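Quarterly update from the structural biology core.
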Amino acid sequence: ASDVYKRQIQIKTTLFEHRLSRTMGDANSPKGRNKAGGCLIEISTDEGITGISLGGAGAIPQINLLYENILKGSDPRNVTGLWKKMVERFFKGGHDGIANDAISVLDVALWDLKSKYYEEPLWKTLGGNSEQVNVYASDIALPISDDQIYKWYCDMSTKFGFNAGKLKVGLDQDSDLKRLQLMYDALKLSGKEPILYVDSNEYWSPKQTIRKISEMEERFTLGWIEEPARRWDFLGLKKVSDSLKTPVCAGENLDTLGDFLPYFHHRSADIIQVGHGMTGITGALQIADAAYALELPVTLGGSIGIIHAHLANAIPNCITVEVPHAEPESKVFSTDVKITNGFAKVGNKPGLGIEINYDELSKSKVGSVSVKSGPSPYGRRQGAGLYEVPPSKDEVKEARTK
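Predicted structure, tokenized:
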């Protein structure tokens, strides 16, 4: 079999877009967006095994570069070795940003291929187990109305058993407090005590965060405050952590293990965010291991098909996994990771457990992914870290009519 894998391997990329079931956005994007875009990466061997990954829509030139210079002619089962070569390919300029996006999606596809070669699910290839995983519902929907937020969390609670949820905050403290109560009331329908997380998406300065969260703490017990300062402000994050009862959760927008070293050195965050977008599954596991060595818990962010549930089973210090969509958000793919009674349960299909519906893919295929189909399509909001700019009437109107 090893000789077969030394033969030519092929790569294919397909861009697609699909409509979201709700208008999604955060403190930086109160207009919200109603579409999501992505790229299907397929790494195939002439033995008929194909590893897939979803993401990296803006990194196709770098993906093709890495394929031509590193993956082509290589044994794709040598995932860690190929990962190291890909990282070193970008030594001079660094492998953050677009380079990181390319490495990440290729690494995921290689892990999927390797698991399929051994005819086992990814969690088993990673050395994990098949136990249920703690998860929380994440609306990522600041633009929608209070009634819609309440209904969405009611659905998550009654249909899927979620008792933990995360609310996007940052633009209007009175509204945030009201929505926290709505989320609490909805999640209590699960029959379990709700766990509340909040995420300000780097909109506040450290001092703003301390003031805002201190007020929230008078009424609620919070599981964490996420991204309460700029991602590189490790001293500001530490200031927030030292000043509040609520733990600081940070790292979502960092790319590499090296990016996390100031967090670890200064104990800037109480909970470390990890994801396959951090130089792939290989990179994510390295960051989680470093956090484990420092007795720091990690949480895994949202992922297409909830594939992070596979990683969570292989990370002993993982406390919970973000779930923006309890069921597939697009007809382009299906997954065998299921949410029941507030937990994610991984399946036994080989690899990621994701299957592509190629008929639906052909309907959703696009020549280029639109700017407004990506996360935070409007960039960082005016006034961020300085003063608050509430949503304008026009922004609210646009969000409601999407």
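The longest strand covers residues 9-24.
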